[in-house]
Amino acid sequence: MKFYPAFSAFCASLSLVVLSHAAPNTGSPFYGEAPDAHHPWAVHDQNRPQPKRVEPGTFSSAAQPGQPPSDAIILFDGTAASLAKWESDTKPGMPAQATKWIVRDGALECVPKSGYIRTKEQFADCQLHVEWAAPLAVSGDSQGRGNSGIFLMGLAEVQVLDNYNNPTYADGFAASVYGINPPMANALRPPGEFQVYDIIFRRPVYRNGQLVDAGRLTVFCNGVLMQDATPLEGPGGHMKRSVPIEFPAQGPLKLQDHGNPVRYRNIWYRPLPPRSIEGGTDGALTTEATTAKRHEIATNLRADAAKLSDTAKMLRLAESLSYENDAGTAASVEKMASDYVGGLQKLQGPALEAKKGEAKSVQRAFAYLQKNKILVAPYKPKTQLDALTKAQGWDDVKK
Ligand code: MG
Fold first, then answer.
1. 10 Å Cβ neighbour count for 305?
2. What distance in angstroms lies between residue 161's CA and the mean position of ligand 1's atoms?
3. Domains and CATH numbers, the chain
4. Which residues lie across from 87 on neighbouring strands?
5. What is the average pLDDT across 176-201?
6. Residues 204-241, buried b or exposed e (16+ Cβ, 10 A)?
7. Residue 319 Cα, ligand 1 centroid: separation in angstroms?
8. Does the CA dihedral 364-369-373-379 come out positive or negative?
9. CA of 110 to the centre of ligand 1 (A)
10. pTM for this entry
11. 287 φψ region: left (φ > 0), alpha (ψ -120 to 50), beta (else)
């Protein structure tokens, strides 16, 4: 394909000018298919919240860790101060103790035989970023070489192991869900170099003691996919077949002391929103969550309508009916629509012609509500408006 740099640059500058001056185009109401039992928003709904802004971070290099994204919660940033976010993994009921792991050259280093460490902070579903390096000096083999582990909620282990040139049982390989599922590949760098894990964790969900979502782990190692939403089968473990158990609501992140001075750096996480099965906040939701969200959207639109007047008020109230068909609102809309059309019928000539754009937008709104069965046909004000627009020769609108 030919490439014309001057022309492209011209187009880019043109689009920049257009973009910088145009109002944001977030779509129109009365457009995509209406909300339904599992979707509180219409297709292309302008009322659906914009994604929150996150300043992206930077990628890590072998020499230095990257910057986390702006909303990441930092668990270790290379400073001795961030060691205060960790403690020794003492047994339940025992008093907390400072960790004996050390910070050296910007890395959190396991001191063999000092025990696991855990975050003071507790959390659950997350995007987790961890970088780790096995000792440069190779010693041991199989599970004895550069072994540590990342325990989500202190329970499910994503294995940390120097498998660069070191076979072991597959379900205990680096980036395995330990004892449950091997990774899909070996994308490790040599020992001494930092490896980058990006993990997406979803805990098991139970309802009334019944498992409704097994939970899952997605793991990338150095940007290569290792686990593709692997279902959890409980917390995993050594030698024993793992069985599903109910996880607590939250837990700490734990790092394993397996007797090797494995180093960690650049540890951060971003909490994830609840899944649809937990009530959810977006996407296909349960009927209960959808009804609640539709009520919330309709309530907000009606509150907004109260600040408006005339046609804008009527349209906003009409819009609210897409989310919640409230008899009182429907009656108000019908009365306002009837008055609106009655007002138009009294106009003539240029005064009526001046209303063309507005009348067509009202007509489109009622056509939409009728098509989506929010208003039942025949809807008298629409029938009258259709007749009026036809008589005026305005009826080039798709209905
Ligand atoms: Mg381990």
1. 21
2. 7
3. 5-51+281-391 (no CATH), 73-278 (2.60.120.560)
4. 118
5. 97
6. bbeeeeeeebebbbbbbbbeeebbeebebbbbbeeeee
7. 56
8. negative
9. 12
10. 0.85
11. alpha
